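We treat protein structure as text, and this decision shapes the records that our systems exchange. Because each token names a local backbone shape, the row as a whole describes the fold. For reference, a complete record is included directly beneath this paragraph.
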Amino acid sequence: MRRGFVFIVMLVGVLACVLPVALNASLDFQDDVKKEVRRYEGKLLLLKTPSSFDIVHFDQQGRASREGSGVPWTTSGLVRARKTDVRERQVVIEGVRVVVALDPESPTKLVPVTTGREVHIAIQLPSSLHGSAEFNEFLARVFSVEDVPQRIANAWHGEIDLKRLEDIKTLPPDGRIGTLEGGRVVYSWESGVVTKPRALYKPGPSYPASALLKRVSGNIRVRVIVNEKGFPEILEIIQNLREGLDAQVLAAVSQWRFEIPRKDGIPAATMVVVEIKFNLRNSPPARRR
């Protein structure tokens, strides 16, 4: 009986020494992680697993809990981190969606455009992580930062002036107008070599409060490169309204889904122009926000 009592006393003594050390180590690690993750605030993050969901969760292996179903990174993989935090070994990133778009001032140049669509990212940290180096190595499984500008620059290479799409006579005989990342050819449906896809799913944009107060109305036209899976991959505002409406339209159109374009029965990419109407006198298609 006395031996058991002595053992318990010794065990309590050991725990009294070990637990504070372990607790302090855990708190130190969390503080270090918070400092590290703050470095990403304001940065453009490219998710290794693109997702169209507004809430995205990654497990302790850095894998997304829900797959993105083949959505392109150019419209579903870029996030501008606004606020970061660490809660109970979980990194939390609050950000806003960014899409890759053609620059209206220079049609051959691609630029990241911030939309009005918010996104919440939660990354579960494995218990085996120790130190900032291991932490950053783990985050590299989830997203990248350094190679983003080059990836954006290589996402589209145009071969003709896109304004020529309106003039069928000036189109190349094979209908080829450019290539997407990976050498995937984009054809003009106006040339007749590829089918014109219609939108199957087209959520409407929100109507920003500032635009409502100023009673802004009119049409926004968006050029959309629809890839071989029916996803919007590259966007361009070719007729705008400002007052936050352009960003809301890009956020909405990036979520559209189209019929798969086909060339000789085989999936191929093409380019279409869609129009969003904002009219305050009638019931607008956009959601008020």
In short: The chain has two domains: 27-153, 157-288.
